[in-house]
Fold this sequence. Notes:
The complex is a heterodimer of chains A (211) and B (251). Chain A is of the alpha+beta class and 211 residues long. Chain A contains 8 helices and 4 strands. Chain B is built from 9 helices and 10 strands. About 9% of the residues of chain B have low confidence. In chain B, the strands form 4 sheets. In chain B, strands 8-1-10-9 form a 4-stranded mixed beta sheet. At the A-B interface, helix 4 and helix 5 of A face strand 3 of B.
Amino acid sequence: xxxxxxxxxxxxxxxxxxAENKNIDAxxxxxxxxxxxxxxxxxxxxxxxxxxxVEERGLSCxxxxxxxxxxxxxxxxxxxxxxxxxxxxxxxxxxxxxxxMAFASNTQCARCHTGVKxxxxxxxxxxxxxxxxxxxxxxxxxxxxxxxxKFSHNFHAKAFGCNDCHxxxxxxxxxxxxxxxxxxxxxxxxxxxxxxxxxxxxxDCAKCHKT
Amino acid sequence: xxxxxxxxxxxxxxxxxxxxxxERREFLxxxxxxxxxxxxxxxxSAVSTMSRVFASADEYAEKYPYKxxxxxxxxxxxxxxxxxxxxxxxxxxxxxxxxxxxxxxxKDSPDAIGQKREFIPVLCxxxxxxxxxxxxxxxxxxxxxKNGIVMMEYKKCIGCKTCVVACPYNARxxxxxxxxxxxxxxxxxxxxxxxxxxxxxxxxxPAGVRIFGDLSDTGSEVYRLIHQIERPVWxxxxxxxxxxxxxxxxx
Lengths: 211, 251
C-alpha cells in the first residue's frame, strides 16, 4: 500500500516537473523570437533585451504587446513620438520606467543608451545576418528602353522579414509578378514602400536602373 | 632695590585685533606665494587650491581675465554617446578621420548598481595656464588676448608635436593636410565669428550635455552652473594646475 502511494507521489511530481519545464521551454522560444531589439533612432543606440525583461524580470508578452509596442520589431522608432518626452508621459518604455515599477526614464541615461560605442561593439559580436533562406544574389529585372533594375535581397532582408513582401506584394517565383512601372506608381509591387515617404520614390529612376 | 611693579593691563595689546583683515590677507598671501615658489609648486596653487579646482572660489570668480571668457560646462551624466557632437565638429571644422577635436570617453564600473557605464565628452580645455602654449618653441599656439581661446597659427607651426605631449588633456593632433597641429578652438573661426552663439558640438547635442557660454557674464548659464554649491563641479586633472575652462558636473 505504502509503495503504491509513494509511486503515485513520484509520478505526480515528475509530471508536474516536466509540465513546468515545458512552460519554460515555450517561453524561451518566444524570447528567441524577440531577441535583442537595437534601436538606432532618434539616437544611436539603445539595445532592448527581451531576455532581461522576460526571463529575468518575468514579464509576459501581453504586458507590452500590442498595447505599447507592435509585435514587429523596430516599428516604434519609425513613429515621430518615439522620444524621451513621450517616455516621461508614460508611453513606450515609460509605461514601466516611471520610477515606481522600474527606474525612471529620466535617470541613469547610459543604462539603456549604449551609444555609438556600444552599438559598434554589439554589431561586432552580432553581425547583421543576411537572409537565412531566399536568394543571396541580386534579382535583375531587364526592361526595354532602360537599363536593368537590380533588387538586393541582402539589403532589404536586413530590415524586413520574408512575409513583409511575400506573397502579398510579390509572388515567390522570380519574375512571376509581371511588374510594370505604372502599377508601381499606383502603389503596387516596389511602390508599396517606395512612395517617397516610407522609402525613396519609384520615380527616382536611376536609384534602381543604375545603368 | 625695589623694582617698580609693571601693570600689564595698561599695555596696549599687540594681538591680531589691531590688524585689518585685508592687511592680514595680503600678508598671508605673500607668505604662501613664497612658500609656493620654494616648494617648486605653482604660485597660484599655493595661494588658493580652491581656485585651481573650483571656479566658485571668490578670488577666481572676480578675475575671469577675458571678455568674453568662453567656457563649457559638461553635464556629464546626460551624455549618451550618440556622437552627434563629434559628427558636427568634423563637418564644421573639416577634421580628418585620423584625428579629433572632441571625442567621448567611456568609463565602465562593472560593480555599480544599475547604470554601469558613463560617457565623458572631452575637448580642448582652453586653459588659463596652458602647458601647450608654454611648450611651443615658435609661439604658433597662443592664448587669444580677448577671449582666452587657445589658438593655432598654422603657418608658424613646425610640427614638432611638443605641445601634443605637453597637453594634459590629449586634445591636439597633427593634421597632415595643414601640416600643423590642429585643435579645438571653440569654433571661433567657423561659427562664433559668424554670429553663432554656440559651438558646433554644443548646438548638435540633443541631451543638453554641453553648455557653452561666457563666464564673465554673470547672467549666463555657464556662470550660473559653476557658481552654485548644491552640485559638485570639477575639472579634469586639476593636479596639473592648467586652470581649465571646461567644467564637469552631474545632474
